[in-house]
From TrEMBL:
The protein, known as: NAD binding domain of 6-phosphogluconate dehydrogenase
Taxonomy of the source species: Bacteria, Pseudomonadati, Pseudomonadota, Betaproteobacteria, Burkholderiales
Domain 6-phosphogluconate dehydrogenase NADP-binding: 11-142
Superkingdom of origin organism: Bacteria
InterPro entries xref list: 6-PGluconate_DH-like_C_sf (IPR008927), 6PGD_dom2 (IPR013328), 6PGDH_NADP-bd (IPR006115), NAD(P)-bd_dom_sf (IPR036291), Pgluconate_DH_NAD-bd_C (IPR015814)
Species in which this protein is naturally found: Paraburkholderia fungorum
A single MF term (Gene Ontology): NADP binding
Pfam families recorded: DUF1932 (PF09130), NAD_binding_2 (PF03446)
Phosphogluconate dehydrogenase NAD-binding putative C-terminal domain segment(s): 192-260
Amino acid sequence: MKPIVAIPSAGEMGAALAAQLTARGVKVLTMLEGRSEANRRRAELAGMTSAKDDDQLLDADFLLSVLPPAHAAGFARRIAPALIRAPRRPLYVDCNAISPDTALGIAKNIEENGGSFVDASIIGFPAKPGATGGPKIFASGPLAPSLQVLGEYGLEIRVLDAPVGAASSLKMCYGGLTKGLVALGSALILAAQRTGSMDALNSELQATQPHLFAWLQRMVPDMFRKSHRWVAEVDEVESLMGDRPEHEIFAGASALFERLAADERGDQTEIDVLAAFFTRV
């Protein structure tokens, strides 16, 4: 018998995972009440089924929480009381870009309300419609092997032999590395523009670091529309650093992404500088 999966929000990643599942005959529940038209459209294209309330959403075997990181703990607090009365009590799989401490706090909340928890993280981009493959879902904790059944329905599941928190740590370290490099590159390009060396930096990077230039050329412009979402994720990476001095690296990256997000919504002064840097080829 095929499992039923709940994915509360039909964001870009959630809807893409749902599409992989529904293409193989899996029923995927979501919540559409109060959602944007874009969210509703993604849910429709992914073949998701609208649940009228939390109780109906929890009539599933798995609940994959795929949300902006700032909303992960709040959603868990909201849904946890409904787990007590849920007939199926789905396995709660937190797939969000959160720190291990945040994941442990969510696990405690879910388990205290009678639920079961798996720590998970997603690495990769949402699968395009009709494409084969997709992002990897890494899972940790005692119940992580239970998630492997979804591998039979299109998802790529990687189980870590590690406790709750390890999958979140992997996402933080991987995402912190990639987003940290984007922040570093963006900050230095902007500094070069302010001090008159942007053309020379562009030429030298292409001549001596072509692979780095190509990576930044792909990643920096792709960041513009996502920068508002990256703020909370980089804040979680900063939390991972604790009170070590290097936490300031990610505090600075978060502040930069917050500024670029405001700029992207406004005059796009710095966005235009960054975009122009990569047209100098």
